[in-house]
Amino acid sequence: MSCQNFIEFEPDALKVITDEKTYKMLLDPTYEPIIIILREGPLTVTALTKRYNAFVDKRGTNRGLSPEVLKKEKKSEMTIYRYLKDLKKFNLVIEAGRCIEPGKKSTKAIYSRTARMFYPKHSSNDLKDSEKIDKHIDILSEIIIMYKPDQKLSKSCLSALVKKIVLFSDTEAASIFEKHSDAISALTKDQSFDKMGKILTNLGSIILMLNAHLFEEDLKQCFKKG
What we know:
Elements: E1 4-7, E2 15-17, H1 20-27, H2 32-37, E3 43-44, H3 45-62, H4 67-73, H5 77-89, E4 93-100, E5 107-113, E6 118-120, H6 124-128, H7 130-147, E7 151-153, H8 155-179, H9 181-187, H10 193-210, H11 216-222, E8 223-225
Parallel strand pairs: 2-6
Antiparallel strand pairs: 1-4, 3-5, 4-5, 7-8
């Protein structure tokens, strides 16, 4: 007889991820299957392990991995439990309740995502990290000069503009996800976090194109005829 779930936790509709280490956990092929599987709802370690192994088996088969390699990809309940502990440290997974089997005193923990959707967003610290920005701007400016050799480009102006654009794009995209989190969660439930990242990149580009007039004066200040 299967046990009865007693859920004590309701995941948030949306959780904004600003920490780089947390976002890397979402993309890690070891942990990503757990996050994807838990989109469907809370599970015990036993149930999660079965689905995890089925997930990696299908993924590996699609990638053309040999049976020997696929066998190594499968994990034990102990390993899945350890992965859950790692995800809990980053507040991506939580113990949501207990599974109680009739006639037995022992119970099993049930694990859930902390949010139905995770949205990656640049943190204010990232935007203030002048060393990171300047390193990117040096490369970016050189490429832009190759594209527009007749223009004189101000690197300091470009750095400020990039920060402004990133902040605007992230804020607008986050607003869309917050207003329509349930609909977007259902729409993207089968997408990997890598694919979601590409979707967000394209969304950011469209948002900027629709609002290009907001940055026209900034661009004129950064670019001048040589």
